[in-house]
From TrEMBL:
<protein>
    <submittedName>
        <fullName>Transposase</fullName>
    </submittedName>
</protein>
<dbReference type="GO" id="GO:0006313">
    <property type="term" value="P:DNA transposition"/>
</dbReference>
<dbReference type="GO" id="GO:0004803">
    <property type="term" value="F:transposase activity"/>
</dbReference>
<dbReference type="GO" id="GO:0003677">
    <property type="term" value="F:DNA binding"/>
</dbReference>
<feature type="domain" description="Transposase IS801/IS1294">
    <location>
        <begin position="69"/>
        <end position="240"/>
    </location>
</feature>
<dbReference type="InterPro" id="IPR007069">
    <property type="entry name" value="Transposase_32"/>
</dbReference>
<dbReference type="Pfam" id="PF04986">
    <property type="entry name" value="Y2_Tnp"/>
</dbReference>
Length: 366
């Protein structure tokens, strides 16, 4: 088991057994270099994660009046190794109401999230940068605002369902390895590096050639600062209230399991025996002579002159039925063989009556 698999299993075990959705928050391409500024890099990247989680949790609080949960992961690179900070989030499709009940929901207002997210990012930059630096990047902020009339891109499909462990494994792949996998490096000659990538605009596989110095440079800028956490928890997944939320969710999930058991009992398909008793009024597995009960092992059907097991209760029953079918076939074969043998004997044995008829038929007529 790889490190990504172990991490995803560990995190999934620590999350609630409810539906989750994968949400991705991105920023305008013209703002990426601002997040590379040494003085503000850590503050801006942490703020990017905090603001993304806040936007989602506030939207849930306003629309559904619940407190949801978010596990956010920061990715800083794209397929071409460009600096592209974006936030992957696993969001609970439900939350805790003020009275301590769990309430599910099935929709995220992603159009509204785009506008909220755009405003949050622009305000984050303005309040983090110094007045002089803010004045320098002001044209970038204005262009980013005008170029995205509907807000920054947020990928949150209306009705998406994602397997939790698979999603966590996908996210962890980028957290537990470098920005580029070894199998993507096509050529290295000591001076240049040629690597492949998938162009998302054309959906085609392309290659890109860089000098060794430039290649090392684009790799090192994706190394997070010391003690910087690229995975953070918010809402009911926050470390501060996780213990309390686990107690609340344990009560909720226990009630859900009890209701599921009751529902299964109501919707359970009746067996063949139960249907026979209900319709005909007798138990087909009870012997009418001695009163003992038979054990239903399965059914066999005749196919191409042979008995085939159509259904068996379990492996032992199938083995027993195959043995019975073989014995029946063997007995049928022996019976047919004896009948054929008797018929052949009758045809071949000496018969005085038959010989007399032959003799009389060959005598000359007077």
């Amino acid at each position: 088991m790889g490190e990504s698999q172990r991490w995803s299993d560990l995190v999934a075990h620590d999350m609630f057994a409810v539906n989750h959705r994968h949400v991705i928050f991105t920023i305008d391409e013209g703002l990426r270099e601002i997040f590379l500024m040494d003085k503000y890099r850590s503050v801006l990247l942490k703020g990017l994660m905090d603001e993304a989680a806040r936007v989602v949790l506030e939207a849930l609080g306003k629309n559904r009046k619940v407190q949801g949960g978010v596990v956010a992961a920061l990715h800083t690179f794209g397929s071409k190794l460009e600096f592209n900070p974006h936030v992957h989030m696993v969001v609970t499709m439900g939350g805790i109401t003020p009275d301590g009940q769990w309430k599910t929901y099935d929709y995220l207002p992603y159009k509204r999230l785009r506008v909220y997210w755009q405003n949050a990012v622009l305000k984050l930059i303005r309040r983090t940068l110094s007045p002089w630096d803010k004045k320098r990047v002001q044209p970038r902020l204005q262009r980013a605002y005008k170029a995205n009339a509907e807000g920054f891109y947020v990928n949150a499909p209306k009705r998406s369902r994602t397997h939790l462990k698979g999603l966590l494994k996908y996210i962890s792949r980028y957290m537990k390895r470098g920005p580029i996998a070894m199998d993507r490096i096509v050529m290295y000659d000591g001076e240049s590096v040629l690597f492949s990538y998938k162009d998302k605009r054309t959906n085609r596989k392309e290659t890109h050639l860089m000098s060794v110095e430039a290649f090392i440079g684009v790799l090192t800028r994706h190394i997070p600062d010391r003690h910087f956490k690229t995975i953070r928890r918010y809402g009911i997944y926050s470390r501060r209230i996780k213990t309390l939320m686990k107690q609340v969710m344990a009560v909720y999930q226990k009630a859900v399991r009890r209701r599921l058991v009751e529902l299964k009992q109501v919707m359970r398909v009746k067996s063949w025996t139960e249907k026979t008793v209900e319709v005909f009024g007798y138990d087909p597995l009870k012997c009418s002579d001695c009163g003992e009960f038979f054990e239903f092992m399965g059914t066999s059907v005749a196919k191409n002159g042979r008995l085939k097991v159509q259904y068996a209760k379990d492996r032992q029953a199938r083995h027993y039925m195959l043995e019975v079918n073989q014995n029946i076939a063997k007995e049928a074969y022996q019976t047919k063989y004896k009948q054929a043998e008797a018929a052949a004997y009758d045809r071949c044995r000496f018969s005085w009556e038959r010989q007399r008829r032959i003799y009389l038929s060959e005598m000359p007529q007077a």
